[in-house]
Design a protein that fits this description.
This protein has 173 residues and is of the alpha+beta class. It has four helices and seven strands, in the order E-H-H-E-E-E-H-E-H-E-E.
C-alpha cells in the first residue's frame, strides 16, 4: 500500500470522521462515544499540526493521483495558559483497512516533525493499557511512559486507566 502524508484540510473531514468512528467502535481508542461535528472537532484541535495519510493511486486513472484516506493525526492544546503553549496532546487514528501497514508510524513521525516546526516541545498521549498497538507505536517514535492515571474516566459502566506517555523534543524548548 503506497500513501503520502498531507496537511489535513476541511474537505478531508468526512473521511477523518469515519476513521475516528472506527476508533470509537473498538472501545480501545478514546472515551468518546459519539462523533463530533466538524465545528467541535476543529475548535478542539490546533489549526496547524493536522495530517492525513492518503493512498497513492495510479495517476493515469486519477489525475490528482490521490485516493482513499488511510489515517489522520492531529494535536490538541493541553491548556490555554501561555506557559503550556509548547505542549500538545497527540491523536493518531488509522482506518481498519490500513492497520498494521506502517500508516500510523508514518503519520506520527510526520506529526513529530510538524510539531517541532510549530514550536511544540512536549507531546503527550493518553492511551488505554489494552491498546498495545498504540503503546508500541508511540514508544517506537520516542515516547516514554511517565505514569498511569488509574480509573481516570468511565466508558459506559467501566472505569478505565490511561497510560500517560510523553515525548520531549531535542530541537525545541
Amino acid at each position: 500500500m503506497e500513501y503520502e502524508i498531507f496537511p489535513m484540510l476541511p474537505d478531508h473531514w468526512p473521511a477523518v470522521r469515519e476513521i475516528y468512528g472506527e476508533g470509537i467502535a473498538t472501545g480501545n481508542a478514546t472515551f468518546a462515544t459519539e462523533l463530533p461535528s466538524w465545528e467541535n472537532w476543529d475548535t478542539g484541535h490546533r489549526k496547524d499540526c493536522r495530517l492525513v495519510a492518503l493512498e497513492s493511486i495510479d495517476v493515469a486513472t486519477q489525475p490528482r493521483g490521490i485516493g482513499k484516506t488511510l489515517g489522520w493525526a492531529a494535536l490538541s492544546p493541553v491548556s490555554s495558559r501561555h506557559v503550556y503553549r509548547g505542549v500538545a496532546e497527540v491523536s493518531v487514528y488509522v482506518a481498519a483497512l490500513a492497520r498494521g501497514r506502517g500508516v500510523g508510524k508514518s503519520l506520527l513521525q510526520a506529526l513529530v516533525q510538524e510539531s517541532e516546526v510549530n514550536g511544540i516541545w512536549t507531546l503527550q498521549a493518553g492511551i488505554f493499557p489494552e491498546n498495545a498497538a498504540s503503546l508500541a507505536l508511540h514508544k517506537s517514535c520516542g515516547f516514554r511512559e511517565v505514569g498511569i492515571r488509574t480509573r481516570i474516566g468511565k466508558l459506559g459502566d467501566s472505569w478505565l486507566d490511561v497510560k500517560l506517555l510523553e515525548r520531549r523534543s531535542t530541537r525545541v524548548g
